[in-house]
UniProtKB/TrEMBL annotation:
Record's keyword terms, sorted: ATP-binding, Cytoplasm, DNA damage, DNA repair, DNA replication, DNA-binding, Nucleotide-binding, SOS response
Family of this protein: Belongs to the RecF family.
Gene3D superfamilies from the UniProt entry: P-loop containing nucleotide triphosphate hydrolases (3.40.50.300), RecF/RecN/SMC, N-terminal domain (1.20.1050.90)
Functional description taken from the UniProt entry: The RecF protein is involved in DNA metabolism; it is required for DNA replication and normal SOS inducibility. RecF binds preferentially to single-stranded, linear DNA. It also seems to bind ATP.
Identification of the protein by name: DNA replication and repair protein RecF
Record bears the keyword rRNA-binding: no
Domain AAA+ ATPase: 22-351
Residues engaged in binding ATP: 30-37
GO cellular component: cytoplasm
Biological processes per GO annotation: DNA replication; DNA synthesis involved in DNA repair; double-strand break repair; SOS response
Pfam families xref list: AAA_23 (PF13476)
Location in or out of the cell: Cytoplasm
Length: 357
């Protein structure tokens, strides 16, 4: 599916914005604070979850939580609207019919890379787990449902643990739910890693390939077998009760990455190598979505690459035939895309973002 129209109303710094797009990359340029990232965040809200900033709906309105916002888009042949009214959860409609965020994931696959993700390999495992789950969601939209089911059952189990409830019947029911959803989570993650690895093999690219692994952390968080997950949860009740929370399971998984002939751990690589590795995974993710045209959101990515690497990135994006939305402070950062991309200039006028000339 191709995103051909984006219309924002009272979203972040934009009182109103209309962009008509086509299959070409969209290069958005303007000074810092002009609202470039807000456009990419709006596109990311056309997928399940809280978007690339992870913000609550009430924090995304231009004038604060007392004002609602709306994003309308044309995706393929479908009209999509998502909005949040004051004090209300986010709503989704597809072709004027109420829908779910999960349905958005089946309609369009969105992959993003932000400057905050530059710290991915040195950050806490939670950040790498979120990254892996976003990748997994691009392949398996139902992954979000598995995650919700697992988290809901775990919250209930944690409540029992904190209240020191000892009735095994309550635990067995919740642990069975956690085991089924947790096994599905792990299978989805392992499948996503395998697809990324396969998409890197034999690809001619200027970015390094990575060897990825689902790290178990504590409690065999890479176990795809529901029965063994349930057994481990049952055996760990005493320890978990002392801690007041569930200490093992898929929610403790981590993503490991090594690259090069020396199998250099990503965390020990230079900043530039870590960035190149991230780009390699994003491109492999898009390449692995056979039969799909994913939307890539690359925020300020050009500023971290030299001219040669920028040109290589743009060539790969065009070769993928993926629709990409990129941001940068000036049009010169996208010079290698001249004639192959749609350029959009933005500026800041007082408290409101505006299209530039």
């Amino acid at each position: 599916m191709t995103l051909t129209r984006l219309h924002l109303t009272q979203f972040r710094s934009w009182a109103r914005l209309e962009i008509q797009a086509d299959r070409r990359p969209v290069a958005i340029h303007g000074p810092n604070g002009a609202g470039k990232t807000n456009i990419l965040e709006a596109v990311s809200m056309l997928s399940p979850g809280r978007g690339m900033r992870g913000a609550a709906p009430g924090d995304q309105a231009r004038k604060g939580p007392g004002v609602g916002w709306q994003i309308a888009a044309r995706i393929g042949d479908h009209q999509v609207t998502t909005r949040a009214l004051p004090g209300q959860p986010r709503e989704v409609a597809i072709d004027d019919k109420p829908s779910t965020q999960i349905a958005l994931g089946r309609l369009m696959r969105v992959i993003w890379l932000t400057p905050a993700m530059d710290r991915l390999w040195t950050d806490a495992p939670e950040q790498r787990r979120r990254f892996l789950d976003r990748v997994t969601l691009s392949f398996t939209p139902g992954h979000a449902e598995d995650a919700l089911a697992y988290d809901k059952a775990m919250r209930e189990r944690n409540r029992l643990l904190r209240d020191e409830i000892r009735d095994p019947g309550w635990y067995r029911a919740l642990e069975a739910q956690m085991a089924q959803a947790g096994a599905a989570l792990t299978r989805n993650r392992l499948d996503a890693i395998a697809r990324i690895m396969a998409a890197q093999d034999g690809a001619e690219t200027a970015f390094p390939a990575a060897s990825l692994a689902l790290l178990p952390g504590e409690g065999a968080a890479d176990d795809p077998d529901a029965e063994s997950i349930a057994d481990r949860l049952a055996q760990g009740r005493g320890r978990d009760m002392a801690a007041g929370r569930t200490l093992s399971g898929p929610h403790r998984a981590d993503l490991g990455a090594h690259w090069g002939p020396q199998a250099m751990p990503a965390a020990l690589s230079s900043t530039g190598e870590q960035k190149a590795l991230l780009l390699s995974l994003i491109l492999a993710n898009a390449r692995a979505l056979e039969g799909e045209r994913p939307v890539l959101l690359l925020d300020e990515v050009a500023a971290h690459l030299d001219a040669g690497r920028r040109a290589a990135l743009y060539d790969e994006i065009c070769a993928l035939d993926a629709q990409a939305w990129l941001t940068g402070t000036g049009p010169e950062l996208f010079e290698a895309l001249r004639g192959r991309a749609q350029f959009v200039a933005v500026a800041r006028e007082g408290e409101t973002s505006a299209m530039g000339i």
